[in-house]
Amino acid sequence: MLLRAAWRRAAVAVTAAPGPKPAAPTRGLRLRVGDHAPQSAVPADTAAAPEAGPVLRPLYMDVQATTPLDPRVLDAMLPYLINYYGNPHSRTHAYGWESEAAMERARQQVASLIGADPREIIFTSGATESNNIAIKELEAAIQPDTSLVSVMTVNNEIGVKQPIAEIGRICSSRKVYFHTDAAQAVGKIPLDVNDMKIDLMSISGHKIYGPKGVGAIYIRRRPRVRVEALQSGGGQERGMRSGTVPTPLVVGLGAACEVAQQEMEYDHKRISKLSERLIQNIMKSLPDVVMNGDPEHHYPGCINLSFAYVEGESLLMALKDVALSSGSACTSASLEPSYVLRAIGTDEDLAHSSIRFGIGRFTTEEEVDYTVEKCIQHVKRLREMSPLWEMVQDGIDLKSIKWTQH
Amino acid sequence: MAASSRAQVLDLYRAMLRESKRFSAYNYRTYAVRRIRDAFRENKNVKDPVEIQTLVNKAKRDLGIIRRQVAEQGTATRRKSGNSSRSLGKPCTSWP
Asked: Could you tell me which residue ranges the Complex 1 LYR protein domain spans (chain B) (predicted)?
C-alpha cells in the first residue's frame, strides 16, 4: 500500500514535470504530456524507453465517428469492471441483485433523457442492432397497409436535423410506425418520444461519450409496437433481445445519458460558438468554400465543407495533424463520394472535395483555431498546384470546357 | 451540518481546479478546468442555502470523480506491454 502510494507520487512527478501546460500557444496544444502509445501486439522492446518524451498525436476532430469516454462515465463503470461483476440475471445472490439494480438504474437514466418509460428501453449492442430490430418489425407485420418510416434524427455526414416532430405527427395520423436513428442526436438536442410521436428509436453509446459496444432501442408501449427479436436465447430484455446484459457497458450508457441531460445546454452553446468560429474563419480567408446541408436546420457540431478545386482525400492527407474525415466512417473505405452529398444534389466535383469537421464536448478553441489555420494553409497550397484553379483565376468557366477523350 | 460558507466554497473551487490540472489527457484537462470555472461562475449568485448545499455536494462528488480518474488514467497511460520481456532481452511470445 505504501509502496504503491510512493510509486504514484513518483509517477506523478515524472508526468507532471515535462511539457508546457495548455497556457502555451499551439506548440503546447500538440504536446500531450503523458500520452503514451497504446500497447501493441509486437512488444516495443527495442523502442524508446517510456521516459523518452510524450508521443505527439493528432487533434481529434472526428466526433461523428466516435467520441471519447467522459471521465464521469468511466468512473461510473469501473466498479462493475472490478468488484461488482455479477450477472444481472442471477436471481439468487447479492452479486446478481446489485448488478440488476445497476442495470435498471441505467435504464431509467436512458429513458429520462428521451422522455420515455424505462420499460420501453431494451439494451442492445449498439444503434446498428437497434436499427435492424426496428426494420425487422416491418417484415414481421406483413399486412399490406402497414408500413414504417425510418429517418435519421441528425445526419452523421452533414449534420442536418430532420423535422422529427412534423414527421411524427404525419405518421401518427396515418397509423404508420415511425422509427428514428437518433445516434447522433441523443443527448445533443432535446428529444421527447411523446412530443415527437416516435414509436421506435435507436441509441448508440459511443456517440454520446459512452462506451463502445452498447446501445439501446426505445420501443413504444402505448400504443404497443410489436417487434421481432433478432437473436433468440434466454429471453432476457422481455424476450426482445436475449443474451446477458453487459452491466458495465449499460451502466456506462446510463451515466452518459445522465451527463448528457445535465450538460446539453452548456455543450450546445459552446459547440455552436466554436462552430460559428470555425466556419467564419475559414470562409473569410478562403473563397469558393461551400457548406453542405441546410444551414437553418443544422446541428452545429457536424460541419461539412466542400473546398472547390481541392481533392478531399489530398486535403485529409495534408491535414495529418488533425483527425478528420471526408464522410461517414461507415463508408470511409470506399473511394466513392458520399451518397448523402449526392442525394442533396451536390455537384460531383464538390462532393469529392468535402471534409467533415466534428466539434464535441471536449473540443477546445485552440484546437479549432489550429485546424482552421492548417486548413487555410493547405487549401491555398493545394489550389496553387491545381490547374483547374489556375484556369478559374484566368476567368475561364470550367463548365464550358470540352474535355477531349484520349 | 451548517450551510457551506463562502470560504468553504472557494476552497472547494481551488481544490477542484488544482486536481483537474493533473489530468494527463489534454482534452480532459481543458474540459475539467473550463467546466468548473463556468459552473462556479454561473452559480455565484445563488442565495438559497439549500440549493447552495446541493450544489456543493455535487461538486464534492465530482471532485472525487476527478481524483479517481486522474489516478486511474495516470496508471493506464504508463502501462506498457513487454516490460518484463524488455528486461530479459527476449521477444515476448505471449500476451502480457
From this structure: 7-64
Q: Which residues from B are below 8 Å from A when comparing CB atoms?
A: 21-32, 34-35, 38, 62, 65-66, 68-69, 71-75, 77-82, 85-86, 89, 91-92, 96
- What HEC string does chain A produce? CHHHHHHHHHHHHHHHCCCCCCCCCHHHHHCCCCCCCCCCCCCCCCCCCCCCCCCCCCEECCCCCCCCCCHHHHHHHHHHHHCCCCCCCCCCCHHHHHHHHHHHHHHHHHHHHHCCCHHHEEEECCHHHHHHHHHHHHHHCCCCCCCEEEEECECCCCCEECCHHHHHHHHHHCCCEEEEECCCCCCCCCCCCCCCCCCEEEEEHHHCCCCCCCEEEEECCCCCCCCCCCCCCCCCCCCCCCCCCCHHHHHHHHHHHHHHHHHHHHHHHHHHHHHHHHHHHHHHHCCCEEECCCCCCECCCEEEEEECCCCHHHHHHHCCCEECECCCHHHCCCCCCCHHHHHCCCCHHHHCCEEEEECCCCCCHHHHHHHHHHHHHHHHHHHHCCHHHHHHHCCCCHHHCCCCCC
On whether the pTM is more than 0.90, the answer is no
The interface predicted TM-score (ipTM) is 0.81
Task: Please list the pLDDT of chain A residue by residue as tens digits (406 residues).
Answer: 444 554 456 545 444 444 334 333 343 455 443 444 444 444 444 444 444 456 788 999 999 999 999 999 999 999 999 999 999 999 999 999 999 999 999 999 999 999 999 999 999 999 999 998 888 766 555 455 667 788 888 888 888 888 888 888 888 888 888 899 999 999 999 999 999 999 999 999 999 999 999 999 999 998 888 888 888 889 898 888 999 999 999 999 999 999 999 999 999 999 999 999 999 999 999 999 999 988 888 999 999 999 999 988 889 989 989 999 886 555 556 667 778 888 888 887 787 888 999 999 999 999 999 999 999 999 999 999 988 888 888 888 887 877 777 6
Chain B residues lying within 8 Å of A8, measured CB to CB? 71, 74-75
A22 contacts chain B (CB < 8 A): yes
Any residues with CB less than 8 A from the CB of A349 and at least 6 apart, and which?
A308
